[in-house]
Design brief:
single chain; mainly alpha; Preprotein translocase SecY subunit; three-stranded antiparallel β-sheet; two-stranded antiparallel ribbon; 18 helices
């Protein structure tokens, strides 16, 4: 406890770090307050009653978790940061296939500014496409929610949703620039964490309330298992396979360069949470399309694959995650480029010929470590289903795995790593007695 208090004092004594933390907390508070501002013309009480009787499930629940409940409350921040994330993913995929974006990625700071500008315009386009769909499916389809759903109300609501998303994006960028941690990731995490207290209270009530089952013993077992899952998720996020690289000695004037051994850290889970997001999005599309048909086959399909705790749903979900992990790792990590960069800088892997043989070796190592990483990622993704089967309420079960848990673990590690860097830079002790905190991006490829 004494060490903890001393660390807090050290953090607060650094003026720059203190200002960054206060800025981050202030901007996150603005974001949370904005998520409770309801769109003008919407009856919040009628909307809450409609939401309590209708269970959307699937991807909509995931979006609502990321938005901190603003999606279901018809807030001005209802679409949250998700359109910006969709635009970022699209630009990232375009950078792998279109030469123009590849050139921008290699132009340094000027190229990064152009990519950011294109991403912002694409965010506006995506939000403009999603906003009418959101209003039609989540607001106006519930009778009595909107007092007067005229053309002017539609126009102002869509414009307000686009403005809200752009403002949330601006908050994220300001946190990244003036605050501590990655702003976009922190906004997602704060939305997820906002649901944790109410979910835990519901779980406690289900164990201790009237008709409660299990009592304190079961609740302690659930908390202990949740802590175990968090530890395993940290291992998954930080797990790396280090490949030794030797650099040749070079004499320039009176100085010697190279001649030291370094390592290439290959992440066990190089794809981050992207395979889970892709799998959930793709599984939601056929269910939506099948919902327009009334045949018995499509009815069975919708019923089967709309049950998050069902066997068919989780088996298909796990297989798709494994496949997408291999796909995303293959498109984000280029062994040939790594081998060329090593050869250009006079580096080589001991016992492996430079060039093609090095690329084949790196590709072989990535294939071997991606298999257990993808299986572990799939297991973490379907853990909430096992928690639901074990009797945990649905809202609390979401924190036993899946995208929510992996994002929380990754963002917390990244933020703590930045705080520790500020402490070490000013000759203070780190946050831990032994070792250093490693974030998702510590030498490997992680989720943006």
């Amino acid at each position: 406890m004494k060490k903890f208090i001393e660390t807090i004092k050290n953090i607060w004594s650094i003026e720059d770090l203190r200002a960054r933390i206060i800025t981050t907390i202030g901007l996150l508070l603005v974001y949370r307050l904005g998520s409770y501002v309801v769109i003008p013309g919407v009856d919040s009480a009628a909307l809450e009653a409609a939401n309590s009787s209708n269970s959307s499930g699937g991807l909509l629940d995931l979006i609502n978790i990321f938005a901190g409940g603003a999606f279901s409350r018809a807030s001005i921040f209802a679409l949250g940061i998700m359109p910006y994330i969709s635009a970022s993913i699209a630009i990232q995929l375009l950078g792998m296939a279109i030469p123009y974006f590849q050139r921008l990625q290699k132009e340094g700071e000027s190229g990064r500014r152009k990519i950011n500008q294109i991403t912002r315009f694409l965010t506006i386009a995506i939000t403009g496409f999603q906003a009418p769909g959101y209003v039609a499916t989540q607001i106006t389809n519930n009778p009595g929610v909107v007092v007067d759903a005229g053309p002017m109300w539609w126009f102002s609501t869509i414009l307000l949703l686009i403005t809200g998303t752009m403002f949330v994006m601006w908050i994220g960028e300001r946190i990244t620039e003036k605050g501590i941690g990655n702003g976009i990731s922190l906004l997602i995490m704060i939305g997820i964490v906002a649901n944790l207290p109410s979910a835990f209270i519901f779980e406690v009530a289900s164990r201790f309330g009237i008709g409660g089952v299990g009592g304190p013993i079961v609740l302690l077992i659930e908390v202990a298992f949740l802590l175990l899952v968090i530890v395993l998720s940290i291992l998954l996020v930080q797990g790396t396979r280090k490949i030794p690289v030797q650099y040749a000695k070079r004499i320039v004037g009176n100085k010697q360069y190279g001649g030291v051994r370094q390592y290439i850290p290959l992440k066990v889970n190089a794809a981050g949470v992207m395979p889970i997001i892709f799998a959930q999005a793709i599984m939601f599309v056929p269910i939506t399309l099948a919902g327009f048909s009334e045949s018995s086959v499509t009815s069975w399909f919708v019923t089967t694959f709309s049950n998050p705790s069902g066997f068919a749903y989780n088996l298909t979900f796990a297989i798709m995650i494994i496949v997408f992990t291999y796909f995303y790792t293959a498109v984000t990590i280029n062994p040939n480029q790594m081998a060329d960069d090593m050869k250009r800088n006079g580096g080589f892997i001991p016992g492996i010929k430079p060039g093609k043989k090095t690329a084949e070796f790196i590709d072989d190592v990535m294939s071997r470590i991606t298999l257990p990483g993808s299986i572990f990622l799939a297991l973490v993704a379907i853990l909430p289903a096992f928690a639901i089967i074990a009797g945990v309420n649905n809202s609390f079960a979401y924190f036993y795995g899946g995208t929510s848990l992996l994002i929380m673990v990754g963002v917390v590690l990244d933020t703590l790593q930045q705080i520790e860097s500020h402490l070490l830079m000013r000759h203070y002790d780190g946050l831990m007695k032994t070792g250093r905190i490693k974030g998702r991006t510590g030498g490997g490829v992680g989720m943006a």
